[in-house]
# Entry
Amino acid sequence: MAESEEEVDVLVQRVVKDITNAFKRNPNIDEIGVIPCPEARYNRSPIVLVENKLGVESWCVKFLLPSVHNKLLLYRQRKHWLDREALADITCTLLLLNPDFTTAWNVRKELLQCGALSPEKDLYLGKLALTKFPKSPETWIHRRWVLQQILLQSSGRSQKDPQSEEERADGEQSRRLNDQLARTLHQEMKVCSDAACRYPSNYNAWSHRIWVLQHMATGNVKVFHDELSSTRLWVSMHVSDHSGFHYRQYLLKELIAELSQAAASTTTTTTSTGVLQHMCSTVAGISPPHHDQANGEEAGEDGRQLSSTALLQLFHQEVELCTDLIQSFPGHETLWSHRRHVYYLWHDWRREHKHQCHRGSNGGSEPDRLENGDEGPLKACAQSPAGLGEDGVNGPRHAGEAMEVDGASLPDPRNSKRLKRGALPPGAPALPSEHGFVSGILDSDCDPEQRRFALAYRKWLDTVIVQHP
# Structure
């Protein structure tokens, strides 16, 4: 084992070189780790490369880490000179062993800005560091900085394209940039998912995932809906992870905002209505109807109906997921908190848009009865854009509805088109259904924790939702 300063320096140089050569031999390394080994037993390198896994024997870490740390500090203090290649190798070794060393990341920022490193190489290094230290805050911060550089470069190339006018006309450069950003987005989602699996309640990973969507997928309903679908299995396997459910709550809020904004914009133009119909069909799986281009009013109304249907489908699916998980995994506070948040999102959205939905159903004359369990026109919007009930063409009559007189029951010619769309998703939850769910939990032979959470949820419904409609 090395003891003198000269022997330590030789050892460190050899280990740094072996790590660099390992990446050259296998550029597909996907995981790093420390191999428990108290002392060197063989006359061989402490760097072990097996398939796509890179390991460092633990006996050399106590020599390697302080040495490269001191070298980097001397360089920053301008007491020791290192060329760019040496800096890249030293910082790589240091960050694989201690990714929370901010100075090393700052040095790599400088190397990246001067062109000595590529953004993809830094993202790859951060990905490897996260396999050993999945919650490293400095690594996530550096990833966001690198992604910002990629976005700036992409926007700069799209604005100042040096290629010929023919290629600009074809949009080839724009397509390449979009493909690159799409690949980067997919890779970031994979990195965040792996880090969340390695460390429970990994707030840093989920926060980074939200940041990526905010900066690289703003307004893209398909991406947000795909994320909502892809994380469904993950949260089902991690029912105590608050961060994962908080991410789903963020996705729901963004989808509600995007669909509501798109519906509000479809007032006169058929073009915007077509865009909304495509978005809603992506979310709810509903085939958009075809209209005459001149009939903008009908297209706008159908756009609003599709938006309401898509949102109600999202709420219904999320509450259904909560129900299954609460019944399958009793006694988890995270599940009850998520159900409370989802229902409040539904309550808030219904409160903001009830007037618009009422006007589409009966001219705004019908009172709001959702707090008492009667969905009224909103239920009609959820079940059929023509206002159909579950039992037939006219559906069950709700208390307080006006009788159909003076030709009011004559069929609307637009309804014949809407009837061809098939069955639409069920409505969102109402207070009676929530109280019934809680009563079913309390009536069953549940454990004390499950009973406590159910009682707290019922109290929340009665104090927040009923008393503050």
